[in-house]
Amino acid sequence: MKTVTMLLCLITMLLIDSAYSNTVMRLDMAHRDTLSPKPTPFHRIEDIMGMDQKRHGLISQKIKTKKGGARMSLGSGFDFGEAQYFSEITVGTPAKKFKVVVDTGSELTWVNCRFHGKGKEKREVFRAEESSSFRKVGCMTKTCKVDLINLFSLTTCPTPQSPCSYDYRYADGSTAQGVFGMDTFTVGLTNGRVASIPGVLIGCSTTGTSFHGADGILGLALSDYSFTSKATNIFGGKFSYCLVDHTSNKNISNYLIFGSTPSSTTKAPARRTARLDLNLLPSLYAINIVGISIGDTMLNIPPIVWDVKRSGGTILDSGTSLTLLADAAYKAVVSGLERYLVGVKRVKPEDVPIEYCYDTSKFDDRKLPQLSFHFKGGARFSPFRKSYLIDAAPGIRCLGFVSAGAPATNIIGNIMQQNHLWEFDLAASTLSFAPSTCL
Predict the structure, then answer these.
(1) Where does the Peptidase A1 domain lie (predicted)?
(2) Most buried among 310, 314, 359, 407, by the most CB within 10 A?
């Protein structure tokens, strides 16, 4: 029986591969700050910093221990009072839609869920037992005991029939507890059709801390059981996204795409390409930054800041909002930018823990020089000024950097990435990027 089941799964995957070899999978993607009710601008910045610092702790802790494809919508969460990006996933049979945070720093895809009558009921939840395609992962299996150990699978096994449980612990003490299962995801294709992807690992979270406005997480980190691995195995070894302005409303979105990027996005300006170091910080998307410049001046930042082997290094992360820099880099960047803000009134908004904020109601942005990140090999990423002098409140803007301490992993967050197309070529281990309106 087991052999027959495996054969049927193989046939299904081959049929999918054949039927959709000339299409692209895509998901709509919107920024998470698009949920209501809206918080005050200052509270929003405070929340962003709190979440980013907790997330940096989690990532640091974690470090220590030719086909077409499909697309998903991707957009800002501004109207939701959140500082990340949302997409919708469709899970189970019959299929149900859930709003999830798109996170390149997480391996586990999970949704709020009920299993055997236990689970969250405040929002719409996934009722696993009502999905005919849901298959629990048994607690006695190698998958549970060995393969999912990095996803915090538990060793407890009350009976051989019990599901594999997890207790996903975050550095700030928040948690997600539930059981692992496999289910079918339904995805939209660029040719207007839909495809079913069977056997995707999903966490059925029955308790724990929820993300405001979201039903769960879409884990896009690179590991054997992440959604990325499953989707790229079918649609080709690439995925891409274009992050709309983080202050966009919920009606503005772009796409998270698995497979080759549509040709319309390859037009001028030409993309720049850098190496994607997939083995330096396992599951995370490490990039080899060698320096930061302001205008024509390369900042004096010690090389140790960029050296992974000496507890430095840099990752690109869609789940972090601001850009976190090791202390030496942070001081060099903010002092370098501050010189161009002399005469602009510096303010300290109440309850905003960010250090450098200014009354820029009469400030000409053109006076602020271009900041650039320099990659090994010569590529240069030059974000728009609004990505590093960010809106905090009407007339008030802040430098969008946070000190991560020392030594520390540097994180280029989603606000710095906005209004650029990013393509992750996992087969070639390259990262390509270019400015874009994302519209």
Answers:
(1) 85-434
(2) 314
